[in-house]
């Protein structure tokens, strides 16, 4: 018994395979194009409405997400995580918060066996000002993650089919999956405190800490399955500058920055920013540790989950104002992010294994 546990431990700490995408594969990564149109774009337009937790707008965007996955990505599982809380703005009423979890694992894995690239954004919008849309905060990040999911889908199918045929699977490298968390209740109802913010994330992190997988699972609970918690927030304005916040995930930051740089040099990106979106590749160890931004990652980070936080500093000029709407987005930047994040997920999930053959 002891021996087996030791084996499992060594499996779960081994290094994942990581092969860079070829130039040819980078060129095939789609931008999403008109699906990010603010008026009738299939992915983005339906999210550009007020969607305060517990309101009709919130239900509408939930339906948009669920319909999209049910119709177009039937191999992804859909899970709801519901909680309620009182808020300082809503008195005795219990406000409902609904996190959505869309997951694609290899078909052979059992509960607690897969390691999961975890891509995250919040879909709720701020309670005030009335009519606030939150295009960068975080309608665009949600739409980007829908695009990433659908771009991955056929390659994941191909990869799983090939691995199944070869009888592979059962190692950390092979048991890799991806999940997309669309979280509710990120915003404060009145002003940001530990109890008035992150309603959905706090409830989910707690629930996952309390959910133990069957004994002898590779991972003891859903938190330990997360290889990286990649949180997108406030994306969609021109000239974003994303710091590398955490030394523990700086290697992943650098991988994403390299993708950006390669795509830019290959002429695959549309925006012409005054500096790279991810300018801190060469940050040195002693430069880390000077603060971070409070966001949905906090309850997960406190429980030891590795975090890659993609949030610009400074925040977009429109942050938490009525101007954070579709008209103030920079769509070339939005489509560039869609490409960069999709390519990052391809690379993480080792898609060179199923790269289309170049002619
Ligand atoms: Zn916000």
From TrEMBL:
EC number: 3.4.-.-
InterPro entries reported in the protein's UniProt record: M28_QC (IPR037457), Peptidase_M28 (IPR007484), QC/QCL (IPR040234)
GO MF annotations, alphabetized: glutaminyl-peptide cyclotransferase activity; peptidase activity; zinc ion binding
Signal peptide: 1-17
Highest rank taxon of the organism: Eukaryota
Every Peptidase M28 domain range: 113-344
Gene3D superfamilies (alphabetical): Zn peptidases (3.40.630.10)
Keywords: Acyltransferase, Hydrolase, Metal-binding, Protease, Signal, Transferase, Zinc
GO biological process, one term: proteolysis
Pfam family, one: Peptidase_M28
Family under the similarity heading: Belongs to the peptidase M28 family.
Protein name stated in the entry: Peptide hydrolase
């Amino acid at each position: 018994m002891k021996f087996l546990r030791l084996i499992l431990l060594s499996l779960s700490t081994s290094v994942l395979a990581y092969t860079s995408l070829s130039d040819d594969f980078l060129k095939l990564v789609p931008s999403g194009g008109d699906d990010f149109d603010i008026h009738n774009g299939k992915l983005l337009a339906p999210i550009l409405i007020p969607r305060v937790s517990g309101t009709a707008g919130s239900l509408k965007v939930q339906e948009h997400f669920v319909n999209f996955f049910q119709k177009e990505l039937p191999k992804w599982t859909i899970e709801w995580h519901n909680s309620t809380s009182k808020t300082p703005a809503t008195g005795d009423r219990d406000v409902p918060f609904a996190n959505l979890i869309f997951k694609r694992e290899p078909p052979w894995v059992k509960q607690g066996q897969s390691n999961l690239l975890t891509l995250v954004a919040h879909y709720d919008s701020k309670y005030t000002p009335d009519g606030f849309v939150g295009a960068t905060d975080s309608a665009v990040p949600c739409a980007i993650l829908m695009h990433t999911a659908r771009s991955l889908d056929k390659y994941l199918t191909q990869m799983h089919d090939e691995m199944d045929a070869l009888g592979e699977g059962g190692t950390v490298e092979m048991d890799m999956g991806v999940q997309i968390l669309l979280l509710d209740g990120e915003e404060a109802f009145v002003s940001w405190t530990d109890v008035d913010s992150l309603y959905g994330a706090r409830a989910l992190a707690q629930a996952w800490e309390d959910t133990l997988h069957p004994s002898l699972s590779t991972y003891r609970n859903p938190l330990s399955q997360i290889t990286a918690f990649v949180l997108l927030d406030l994306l969609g304005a021109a000239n974003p500058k994303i710091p590398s916040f955490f030394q523990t995930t700086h290697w992943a930051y650098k991988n994403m920055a390299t993708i950006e740089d390669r795509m830019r040099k290959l002429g695959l990106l549309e925006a012409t920013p005054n500096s790279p979106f991810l300018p801190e590749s060469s940050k040195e160890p002693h430069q880390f540790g000077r603060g971070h931004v409070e966001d949905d990652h906090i309850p997960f980070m406190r429980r030891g989950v590795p975090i890659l936080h993609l949030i610009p500093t400074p925040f977009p000029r429109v942050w938490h104002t009525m101007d954070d709407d579709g008209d103030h987005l920079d769509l070339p930047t939005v489509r560039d992010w869609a490409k960069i994040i999709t390519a990052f997920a391809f690379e993480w999930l080792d898609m060179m294994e199923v790269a289309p053959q170049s002619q």
